[in-house]
Write a structure and sequence with these properties.
The structure is a single chain. The chain is an alpha/beta fold. It folds into two domains: about 120 residues, NAD(P)-binding Rossmann-like Domain (Rossmann fold); about 90 residues, Alpha-Beta Plaits (2-Layer Sandwich). It is about 35% helix and about 25% strand. The chain has nine helices and eleven strands.
C-alpha cells in the first residue's frame, strides 16, 4: 500500500512547519507558494516545490493536484486567496481538503463550501498553552469539534489505586477514558475493573468544559 501524498499550499510559518513534519515522517510532499523566496527555502525540505498561483485552476491541473490524497490550504495572510483556492480544489474533485482558518467566520465559510477539515492553529495553540499553564496534569489535546476533544493528562492523585468502576467518570464527570498509557504499554478500552496506577497517563474523551474540570483535579 502506497504512502499518502500531500500537497501544501502556502508556505508561511505554519505551512513550513507542516511540510517539515510530513517529510520527517516519510511522506511525499509537494509545496506550493506564489512567493519565489518561500519556494527556494522549501526546495531543500520536500520532495517537490513549485512556485505557482493557487487561484489559477489551469496551473493546478498541470501540477496534477487531483492526484494527491490530501491537499492542505495553509494560506494565512490572504483570506480571499485561501477561500478561492479551497473552492477551486473542491470543484476539481480533490479527495480531501484541509484548510486553515483565521477566525470563526472564515471557518464557517470554508465549511459551507465543503472543505473536509477546517483547522485553527493559532486558536488551538492558545487553548493548549492556557491549559498547560493552569493545570499541572495536562499533556496534549486533539480537538474533534468546537465542543469535544480528546486529551492526555497525568492521573490526578485522587484517582490513584481506584478502578474505573469506582471512579465512574462517565456518570460523575461526563467523560470517557479511551485508553491508559502505562510506561511503554497502552491499554486500549480498559475494562471496568482496571485499576489506575501512579504514573499512568489517561486518554480521555469529553466535552471541553468537562475536560477542563478534570484537568484541574489534584
Amino acid at each position: 500500500m502506497k504512502n499518502k501524498q500531500f500537497a501544501v499550499i502556502g508556505i508561511g510559518r505554519f505551512g513550513e512547519s507542516l511540510i517539515k513534519e510530513l517529510t520527517r515522517l516519510g511522506y511525499e510532499v509537494l509545496a506550493i507558494d506564489v512567493d519565489e523566496n518561500r519556494i527556494n527555502e522549501a526546495v531543500g525540505i520536500v520532495t517537490h516545490a513549485i512556485q505557482a498561483d493557487s487561484m489559477d485552476e489551469n496551473t493546478l491541473k498541470a501540477i496534477g493536484i487531483r492526484n494527491f490524497d490530501v491537499v492542505i490550504v495553509a494560506i494565512g495572510d490572504n483570506i480571499q486567496s485561501n477561500i478561492l483556492t479551497s473552492i477551486i480544489l473542491k470543484e476539481m474533485g480533490v479527495r480531501t481538503i484541509v484548510a486553515k482558518a483565521q477566525n470563526a467566520l472564515h471557518g464557517k465559510v470554508l465549511e459551507k463550501i465543503g472543505v473536509d477539515h477546517v483547522i485553527y492553529p493559532e486558536r488551538d495553540m492558545a487553548i493548549k498553552l492556557a491549559r498547560s499553564l493552569v493545570s499541572h496534569n495536562f499533556l496534549e489535546q486533539i480537538n474533534l469539534s468546537s465542543t469535544y476533544s480528546i486529551i492526555e493528562l497525568f492521573t490526578p492523585h485522587i484517582f490513584i489505586n481506584k478502578n474505573l468502576t469506582e471512579l465512574d467518570l462517565r456518570k460523575k464527570m461526563r467523560i470517557s477514558i479511551l485508553a491508559i498509557r502505562r510506561g511503554e504499554d497502552i491499554i486500549v478500552a480498559p475494562s471496568p475493573d482496571e485499576k489506575v496506577l501512579p504514573g499512568d497517563i489517561l486518554v480521555v474523551l469529553g466535552n471541553n468544559a468537562d475536560l477542563e474540570a478534570i484537568s484541574k483535579l489534584d
